[in-house]
Amino acid sequence: MPIGVFVLAAAVFAQGTSEFMMSGLLARTAADFAVSLGTVGLLTSVYAVGMVLGAPTMAATAGRWPLRRSATTFLALFCVAHIVGAVTTDFAVLVATRAVAAVANAGFLAIVLAALPRLVGPALLGRATSIIVSGVTVACIAGVPAGTLLGQLWGWRSAFAAVAVVSAAVLIPVASMVPRDGAGADASDRSMWSEWAVLGVREVRSAVVVGVLVNAATFAAFTYLGTIAAGIAGTTRGWVPLVLALFGLGSFVGVTLTGRYSDRRGRSIITVGTVGLVGVWALAAVTAHTIAGVAVMTLLTGAAAFGVGSALIATIVRTAAPTAPRLAGAMATTALNIGAVLGPMVAGVAVDRTQTPVAALWCAAGTAAVAAVIVQFDRARRGPAADPVGVGAR
After folding, report:
1. pTM of the prediction?
2. FRET pair for 114, CA 20 to 30 Å: which of 39, 168, 240, 337?
């Protein structure tokens, strides 16, 4: 595996820390700006909206740039956004910095994912994808709990500052060790917008829709995991970063196993995994009244959610890349972040109406059920031997 893939994964670690760390910083941020918990929770959705809009826009803008140039530019912009976010006293400015950081994050991921088939070849695409995604899972294990701990000790601003420092540190190896080519080098002269026609291919379209739903379930639940843990009677605030770390640990296990087998067993992972997600999210909701139940199910849901999600990312890139070489990564990023927008929004409504954050877990189970029905329906339509969402590897 080229060393550049691991360097890019390190950058994704910083970005993943930022994307997920608000789960442990909601209360402190709300108190600092004197806004409601639900309002601060929308920062997660703002970030996801920025990634949804930023992925295709930045892919169109930088789709022909060399990989090193585009990755360095987006990472530098991401770093600056966190420096501004760490010092602002205006909530509107904080929201704006989250949007800018998200656009930079989206551009980085879109370019990197689109470059993977050329960097590692089709045979290693699933494993390379898992390495990139593992940057997010390691962020959940170490970065997000560390950010939560920093927020508890020195305020949420220290967490933003720490992300800026890590981003700046990673910028040097990205600028020196990532290959110059790999992003736009093989792009054809066709219109960027014409590449969106690949969504007319059923395999691609099905993978995108399932990706939206799976990530909606993940974000619906994860946004409120810290709040759920903190609200259990008899627990201390130290449980919040621990629970978030367990989610990250489970995610790392899920992504690692998926990366090992998805190039050959991607079909089975997605077919079985979407059904399994329904069960684990529902069981998480049932057992959320005890800290032991939350801890165990957080580990399991993290593994299942990110394992299936990683397989879906590889599926979208693999099936879209031949027809849409520049937008394949953007499609994967956009699909997952549409889910990240919808999940917290739906969960937020349910939490406000029921006055319990556990409702977010039931939202996750329901959303996963819709994804499972789509996968099973598509499988039945094409026959049991066919790939339900476009994973052609046997």
Report:
1. 0.74
2. 168
